[in-house]
Amino acid sequence: MENVWGHAEALVAAWGLKVLAALVIIILGRWTAKLCRNGLRRVLEKADTDPTLVGFFTSGAHVALMVVVVLAALNQLGVQTTSFIAIIGAAGLAVALAFQGSLSNLSAGVMLIVFRPMKPGDFVEAAGSTGIIESIEIFTTVMRTGDNIVIYVPNAKIIGDTITNYSVKDSRRIDLVIGVGYDDDLSRVKATLQRVLEEDNRVHADPAPAIGVSELGESAVKLVVRPWVNTADYARTRRDLLERIKIEFDAAGIRLPYPQRDVHVHEVKNAA
């Protein structure tokens, strides 16, 4: 009887030490995981990382560390963790295959946030959509069109396509093509165009606007007019210049030609 009690006491003592060691591992592991998470957060925030990316990385790191802590505690209790690791690996592979599209959007979102080819407020053309960037999220990018429609574009499509950012530079060049008649005086036409540009204070003096003949068309002499303006003024200035050029040309008697076609009708009389 004494041998049985002694064996039981030894078994309880051994398991008690194992349980105590497992608890210590969990407590210290949680403290270490929290410490690492906070340290990683401070490093990322100090590096001016996007807040969305900071939360994603710190949460992922904390979960990964806690998985290691739990496996270490189970191993201390004598549980074979090799099978658990295999199960976790198989489950991870299955999840990766099931959410392949979502994971590609996730990785693309991380790339957009890290490399920043565009930012909220930029006017861009990407993945067949054009609009102002509202926000760049982990899986999708939110865009707002000119008529106030919100578009959610998968990040993988944006990364896999050409991104045209119209807002990244402070200034843009307006490219206009103006046609005049062959009978019009080119020097007068160019002087009128130059005056229209000089009277608009949104047009930059440096670099100077370019005005010149680009093509001798079938029904018109075509001139290119290329002034530089602030990016924020591009659309409105372009509209205003076209309107002003039409008004000044009308006042100066300069004709804006348009394609014309002469149709000749021949009457054929049947012989009696």
Structure description:
It is a single chain. With 272 residues, this protein is of the alpha+beta class. The chain has helices spanning 2-46, 51-76, 82-98, 100-115, 155-159, 186-199, 234-252; strands at residues 123-126, 129-136, 140-144, 150-154, 164-165, 171-173, 176-180, 210-216, 221-226, 228-230. α1 (2-46) runs antiparallel to α2. Helices cover 52% and strands 18% of the residues. The strands form three sheets. It has a five-stranded antiparallel β-sheet with strand order 4-3-2-1-5. Strands 7-9-8 form a three-stranded antiparallel β-sheet, with helices on one face. A two-stranded antiparallel ribbon has the order 6-10. The protein folds into three domains: 2-98, Helix Hairpins (Orthogonal Bundle); 117-165, SH3 type barrels (Roll); 171-252, Alpha-Beta Plaits (2-Layer Sandwich), CATH 3.30.70.100.
Number of strands: 10
> What form results from the Cα inertia axes?
elongated
Low-confidence stretches: none
CATH class placement of the largest domain: Mainly Alpha
Percentage of residues in DSSP E strands: 15-25%
Q: Tally the helices: what do you get?
A: 7
Largest sheet: 5 strands, antiparallel
CATH T-level fold name of the largest domain: Helix Hairpins
Q: How many domain modules?
A: 3
Q: Alpha-carbon distance between the termini?
A: 143 Å
Tell me the Rg in angstroms: 36 Å
Strand order of the largest sheet: 4-3-2-1-5
What integer is the average pLDDT? 82
By CATH, the architecture of the largest domain is named: Orthogonal Bundle
Structural class: alpha+beta
Return the string of H and E elements. Answer: HHHHEEEEHEEEHEEEH
Helix content: 40-55%
